[in-house]
Amino acid sequence: MPHAIRFHQTGGPEVLRFEDVELRDPGPGEARVRHTRVAVNFIDIYFRTGRYPLALPNGLGSDAVGVVEAVGPGVTDVKPGDRVGYLLGPQGAYSEVRVMPADVLIPLPDGVSDDTASTLMMKGMTAQYLFRQVFPLQGGETILYHAAAGGVGLIACQWAKALGVTMIGTVSTDEKAEVARANGCAHVIVTSREDIAKRVREITDGKGVPVVYDSVGKDTLMASLDSLQPRGTLVSNGTTSGPVNIDTTLLAVKGSIWVTRPAMIHYATPRPHMLAMADELFGLVLDGKIRSTPSRTFALPDAAEAHRALESRQTTGATVLIP
């Protein structure tokens, strides 16, 4: 019988259980996928703790790669034997094998390994929609990006360099600063000992930046606003330090700032759009402009340990489970 990580109540990592699960045949529009790698994302912690509610008991995870074992009636985009990845669809990626909607599956190019693909599905596609859709970068801009040594951040460092964008990245330690620089981040601010907005103004000769990509949230909100040019854009794409609450009057005081809180589902659908995003991402990988492999791996039964490592903020890059 196959196994999966399930949780029956919200709480700490200890609520995650490695359980036997029933597996049915795929129905119309569905496929059965056997996973080879499963990505761990910070949003998984939000579901586990109840910040984002789910009906319980439930599975966890929305981001994995694997091989199609079978397809149901009406499925023509993928076939048994295809290597695929996905980042949308119902929770349940923390599993050995699962049945899921086939229309969220993305075929993987031969030149992209499972290890690399496991770091790209959610994280690489996030970099794509942030840089190419939410605030489309043309090249030549100077931007501020928080958490530059994280899973999305290291891909963003490389993507910014490929676009000809000067990226100012924030990190929490000198060790993470070295990792960010090695991946193409032009300027790195170590938040434990540097004032973010002050350094941004110094780097930009007092002008500030046209856009800040902020996945940290509460702890960096004021620094983000103080780093922006008049009529600049704050892209609030995460809240790892806590929710963001903004008085709109403050936005006027800070320079008529624009704020957006994007969600992947609104940028990666319909399916042709999702496939075009993936094509651009994979193209950069195949051209050698983005290199990405897991920084840490855990066996699937050790998902709780993976969550503890991610929550400790000591990780860099991507964390992946191996079924």
From TrEMBL:
Domain of life where this protein originates: Bacteria
UniProt keyword annotations, A-Z: NADP, Oxidoreductase
GO cellular component, one term: cytosol
Annotated transmembrane regions: none
Pfam families per record: ADH_N, ADH_zinc_N
Residues annotated as domain Enoyl reductase (ER): 11-321
GO molecular function, one term: NADPH binding
Xref: SMART domains: PKS_ER
Gene3D superfamilies: Medium-chain alcohol dehydrogenases, catalytic domain, NAD(P)-binding Rossmann-like Domain
Coiled-coil positions: none
Protein name (database record): Quinone oxidoreductase
Source organism of this protein record: Ramlibacter monticola
Taxonomy of the source species: Bacteria, Pseudomonadati, Pseudomonadota, Betaproteobacteria, Burkholderiales
